Amino acid sequence: MEEKVRTRFAPSPTGFMHIGNLRTCLYAYLFAKQHGGDFVLRIEDTDRERYVEGAIDVIYRTLKTAGIEHDEGPDKDKGYGPYVQSERKSIYLEYAKKLIDLGGAYYCFCTKERLASLGGDNEAGVHKYDKHCLSLSKEEVQEKLAAGVPYVIRQNIPTEGVSEYDDMVFGHISVPNADMEDNILIKSDGMPTYNFANVVDDHLMKINYVIRGIEYLSSTPKYNLMYDAFGWERPHYMHLSPIMKDAQRKLSKRYGDANFEDFLAKGYLPEAIVNYIALLGWSPKNNDEKLSMQELIDQFSVDGLSKSPSIFDEAKMRWLNGRYIKELTPAQFVEKARAFLDASAVNGKYDYEKIAKLLIPRVETFGEIAEKVEPLAEFKEYNPTMFEHKKMKITMPLALSSLLACREVLPSVEDWTDETLKARLNDLAAELGVKTGQVFLPLRLAITGAATTPGGATEMAELFGKEETLKRLDFSISLLQKALAL
Ligand code: GLU
Question: Of 79, 206, 280, 411, which one has the greatest count of Cβ atoms within 10 A?
Fold first, then answer.
């Protein structure tokens, strides 16, 4: 029988959720769900220097908002816990000792000074450890331990041969053992490094598909050597190509362009962000662009994963977000965009659902709301020359006559809606023998006082209501009359 698929997302609590991390998380989730498997959340907090207070809440909040539900994690222990690495310290030490007994690791008591004396002989300018402590006898090691000499535990990597594996995305990977260093597995403070903790945890948590960023592609042979030394079955690996800001730069926090919550604050819908990032490095067979979480689960495939970096294109994400917004009902729009509406000039004014009806076809993100509704803030005196419109052949006298005609017919309109008003004003233009624009444009300006508005004349009229519309119309008629000195 095939083993149940188990994947994991293993973020480090560094304070924010990078779009690249979220994509890794999403793919691990999609792959598990597609195979009826489990998706595990594990917190990798062994690097205390990078730890940021409250960062774990950001992780929970992000997953929840993104619609990614973990089956197991610190808050849902299904028997593989603890799921937070700092709570597993004794487990790592126990396994590190086992690995020492198996010959896959050794105690190292070298001082900083000795390490520094080894000089820089690799690319990073860091010394390659010379396996000095590997030659210590059991007794020497015991003595030093008993005397309390500080130590680390290092991986014992063979000096010859090649380590190989097949990555599900990048294919066959092979690294000469001589190129790998005897990395530290347990630090002098007793904490494991990522190198060790990820192996122990993935094994103990029965993770059989490891899905993560490409930065681990070439260190995976080291991890495999540990699986082999322990006699554990290696997991399958799926490494993911990076997300770039442009051809040169990786997307990063530094440029403030990579944080999930920042995009929410800019007025993107979480489902649109998730949809967009799913397509960064993966393409569905049918080239669909708008995919729900269920469709992503159904269609996700390893063949669709790209080996080359993908470029994060915010304009494309904005366009996709606009498609999601267009499918919202006014009530849904208000529910999702309430904070943006409250923070805008229409706060407390007008019926939000009516505003929503105007905005749905006109915005791609909620972040555009404020600017769009700005003209609705207050109705105040404006320059009547704004009525002049060359292309529509509108002069101030023509505008005035259109407005006076509107003033005649509008009071008798009972059903004060965009549709009815539009029909009535179309008839009016015909009766007057003028172009419809020569009625609608002056009316829009007359009742808003603004050159650009988030809707046409009759939409604006419906929003303001009959009484307010007529009041503003009267104001504008007298403004024009004064300007024309009538
Ligand atoms: N904690 C690691 C990171 O945030 C996880 C790497 C992995 O998924 O194995 O990069």
Answer: 280
